[in-house]
Write a structure and sequence with these properties.
The chain has 486 residues and is of the alpha+beta class. The protein folds into 3 domains: 9-93, Phosphorylase Kinase, domain 1, CATH 3.30.200; 101-169 and 178-289 and 297-306, Transferase(Phosphotransferase) domain 1 (Transferase(Phosphotransferase), domain 1), CATH 1.10.510.10; 385-462, Immunoglobulin-like (Sandwich). The protein has helices at residues 47-52, 56-70, 101-108, 113-132, 189-192, 200-215, 225-234, 240-243, 251-260, 272-286, 303-311, 325-346, 358-364, 372-378, 454-464; strands at residues 9-10, 14-22, 26-33, 39-45, 78-83, 89-93, 135-136, 145-150, 153-159, 166-167, 385-393, 398-401, 404-408, 411-416, 422-427, 434-438, 444-449, 468-469, 472-473. The protein has a 6-stranded antiparallel β-sheet. Strands 13-12-15-16 form a 4-stranded antiparallel β-sheet, with no helix packed on it. Strand 18 and strand 19 form a beta hairpin. Helix 4 packs antiparallel against helix 10 (272-286). The chain is globular and about 80 Å long. The relative contact order is 0.07.
Length: 486
């Protein structure tokens, strides 16, 4: 296919040599600086994308500014940017001569734990530098990570594509509230549902990547992108050792991965620096290196898991049940009787009172009837409350009980154990109220599908009609990345 840019010189400096690849927003070309004869790469915003999305050019420039602002050896270096005569925005970056991490994993099937840790630590360093500059990547995946070999160093990592990165300190919003952007297989639950997010979305994505390096597959993969996003929100990941029992995956490294993939952001590591410290200790353990802080698996558990463990009732000390004490008493009495009788014979003086025989003691000593209070003490403590996991499609519905708003879906409701029915109302703007009755007799899960109200459905139909200018129909762009529960 003919490409007018190939062979041309941009701004009198950059000669376009070949097309390297195309992404969602732009095309990447191999280029060479015409004056200093240095290889480079040029990313050009696609015309169709710019026409369909008015904010595309601004987000495209965010990528250039974000990457150049970070200035880290594990982040691609951006050197220049400009505008083509046709109006297309472009920027120039260092030429990366090597495969993506996605290709490396695909070609090898999986990576050895030590190599996976080496790559993960470099990714974490680059992201940590970005977070220090208040830049969150939000679209981390193996295809956005290059693995190079430079100056004798193998597996040198370079992170690229900050196209949907977010500057925490910037007050200008280029995406609507609730808009879902990213790659489903590496998207955190809070990002998948359009909820407010922070730097920990990158940690979750890095956990998915580390999981894939160790097993050769991502933690969640549904039949459709929507199904994948739903799994990210609700399903627990299968431990890597269960996914690939044929591989040797250290338990401590597996614990790190599972901590990174926690659904709640606060249950993951505090930041990437803490992650790197733990990975260094895991790597030292694997290599037999002595450490002042040896790995303890219980220390890698999430805060929620630790809190749950603390809520468990303490174990009861071992006691002989009352119904089993009679044989013990009989045996002790028998031994005592024999000893005393022997002493009496040795002194040629019969005991003042003859000792009863063992048989007599057995007849006289009968098992005590179990006391009701004692039996109750050994019964397991019944739970005082139950957990109700409430979801809706779409998510974000208010949950009301007796006209009081408890929270929004997805939501976990804790109620006292009982047999009294409660009526929960699911309410969301533009949808009909749905009422469900539950008996909090055990832990339960409930998902409610909301129907649009007649007024909202009519308005939606009207808004989906293509806009017109005069007698012409104007084409509008509709993103294929949507809230997974709509």
């Amino acid at each position: 296919m003919y490409d007018p840019l190939i062979g041309s010189t941009i701004d009198g400096r950059y000669t376009i040599e070949a097309l390297l690849g195309q992404g969602g927003m732009g095309s990447v070309y191999a280029a060479r600086h015409a004056i200093i004869d240095k290889r480079c790469a040029m990313k050009v915003l696609r015309m169709d994308h710019a026409a369909a999305d008015p904010t595309a050019a601004q987000r495209f420039l965010i990528e250039a500014k974000a990457a150049s602002k970070i200035g880290h050896q594990n982040i691609v270096d951006i050197t220049d940017f400009g505008v083509l005569p046709e109006g297309q925005v472009y920027f120039v970056m260092e030429h990366l001569d090597g495969p993506t991490l996605g290709k490396v994993v695909h070609d090898n099937g999986h990576l050895q734990p030590a190599r996976a840790i080496t790559i993960t630590v470099q990714i974490a360093r680059g992201l940590s530098a970005a977070h220090d500059k208040d830049i969150i990547h939000r679209d981390l995946k193996p295809e956005n990570i290059f693995v190079l070999e430079r100056e004798g160093q193998s597996d040198l990592v370079k992170i690229v594509d900050f196209g949907i990165a977010r500057d925490v300190r910037s007050s200008k919003r280029l995406t609507q509230v609730g808009m879902v952007l990213g790659t489903p297989e590496y998207m955190s639950p809070e990002q998948a549902t359009g909820q407010p997010s922070d730097h920990r979305v990158d940690m979750y994505a890095l956990g998915c990547i580390l999981y894939e390096m160790l097993t050769g597959d991502v933690p969640f993969k549904g039949e459709t992108p929507t199904r994948t996003l739903t799994m990210q929100v609700f399903d627990a990941p299968q431990p890597p050792s269960k996914r690939r029992p044929d591989l040797t995956i250290p338990a401590s490294l597996e614990a790190v991965v599972m901590r990174m993939l926690q659904k709640k952001p606060q249950d993951r590591f505090t930041d990437l620096r803490e992650l790197m410290q733990v990975l260094d200790r895991v790597d030292g353990e694997m290599r037999g290196r002595e450490s002042s802080q040896p790995i303890v698996l219980s220390q890698l558990a999430s805060p929620s898991a630790v809190a749950a463990a603390r809520r468990e009732p303490p174990s009861q000390p071992f006691r002989v049940p009352r119904k089993n004490r009679t044989p013990v008493i009989v045996a002790v009495s028998a031994v005592a009787g024999v000893v005393i009788f022997g002493i009496a014979l040795a002194l040629n003086r019969p005991p003042k009172k003859p000792l009863p025989s063992v048989a007599a003691q057995t007849d006289q000593t009968k098992p005590d009837k179990p006391k009701p209070d004692a039996d109750k003490a050994h019964k397991p403590t019944e739970p005082v409350e139950v957990e109700l996991s409430l979801r809706s499609r779409p998510s974000g519905a208010q949950i009301l009980l007796d006209n009081e708003v408890l929270g929004t879906t997805p939501f976990v409701l804790h109620r006292p154990l009982g047999d009294t029915t409660i009526d929960l109302v699911f309410r969301r703007v533009g949808y009909r109220d749905e009422t469900r009755s539950l008996v909090p007799s055990a832990d339960k899960e409930l998902e409610v599908v909301l129907e649009r109200s007649a007024k909202a459905a009519k308005k939606l139909t009207a808004s989906n009609s293509p806009p017109t200018q005069g007698n012409k129909t104007v084409k509008t762009h509709v993103s294929d990345l949507r809230n997974p529960f709509d």
